[in-house]
User: Fold this.
Amino acid sequence: MNKILFTLLLVMVAMSSQAQRNNRNGGNRQGASREVKTENEVYTQRAEQYVEQWDLTPETGAKFITLYVEWQEKRMNIIDKYGIEQKAGEDVNFKKLTEEEAEKMVKEDFDRLKQQAAIDKEYYAKFKEIITTPHAAQVIVQQRNRAAGMMGMFRNMGGGGMGGMMMMF
Assistant:
């Protein structure tokens, strides 16, 4: 578990560095296509780790990787659409939120979590068709724990965002 988290952390640092390079080069279109490719590479790498850990056959492994990447993309589309909009290095200033802004933020967050749970439930059933039930449960539970842990880590890093993460090293 620690090895997976450390790998994820390194990948996120690499993604941040790549995004900074793209911004410096002024290539928004290039950066956008690279960013999508980078996310797919991260998802594929994580899925390959599961395949190796479980010693799946090449055919089953390929099916799992495809399904895993599809699942992650659907989850991220919900986060992008309903997540709290933040700029790099900034955190939400809850002291300055109006009652209406706070209510809207929480309602959108509940909606996002509900949609993510529905997608997770859908893909849990799909995963069980190609891998064992304990493995499918591992994928879902670890993803949900990872997502919750990463959000907490970013919020508790003094300054928030990727800038705070870089200070850890």
Summary: The two ends are 20 Å apart (CA to CA). Residues 2-84+93-166 form one domain.
